[in-house]
Amino acid sequence: MAMIIRALTPADIPAYRDIRLESLRLYPDCFGASYEEQRQLPILYFERNIASQSLQHTMLGVFEGEELIGLCGVSERENRTVLLTQMYVKSRCQGAGVGVALINAAKHTAAEKHQARVIELDVYPHNLAAKRRYEQAGFQVTDQTADELIMTLRLP
């Protein structure tokens, strides 16, 4: 599978919205947002960041040809830490290395663009496939809330 991974631009917003809503519709128990609520919003949170080309937020997209097949957001926090959000790969592309490529691109973006030393993410404990993928990428569970595991990766 030939993939291109890059930061999304304003021209990508319609494709972003489609795939983001797809992720919420198909996997409602894996994301902290409701499909119905998000679908009704005129502008999604990351659509605003993509439109403004925010320096603090980067939405990475994986493209197969012209089709957006995966997403991963990188958002600055304090103390040279970034938060990985909205990680999603279309079902038909799972198991083909797209998720691994996205995580690697997110690590690079975190270090180079955001000068981060730490990447954090939240994952639901029942989402075993995602948790396993993050562990394979070097993330470790470092904390938990009532609903989610907090996973952390220290960058070199």
Automatic annotation (TrEMBL):
<keyword id="KW-0012">Acyltransferase</keyword>
<dbReference type="InterPro" id="IPR016181">
    <property type="entry name" value="Acyl_CoA_acyltransferase"/>
</dbReference>
<feature type="domain" description="N-acetyltransferase">
    <location>
        <begin position="3"/>
        <end position="156"/>
    </location>
</feature>
<dbReference type="Pfam" id="PF00583">
    <property type="entry name" value="Acetyltransf_1"/>
</dbReference>
<dbReference type="InterPro" id="IPR050832">
    <property type="entry name" value="Bact_Acetyltransf"/>
</dbReference>
<dbReference type="GO" id="GO:0016747">
    <property type="term" value="F:acyltransferase activity, transferring groups other than amino-acyl groups"/>
</dbReference>
<protein>
    <recommendedName>
        <fullName>N-acetyltransferase domain-containing protein</fullName>
    </recommendedName>
</protein>
<keyword id="KW-0808">Transferase</keyword>
<dbReference type="InterPro" id="IPR000182">
    <property type="entry name" value="GNAT_dom"/>
</dbReference>
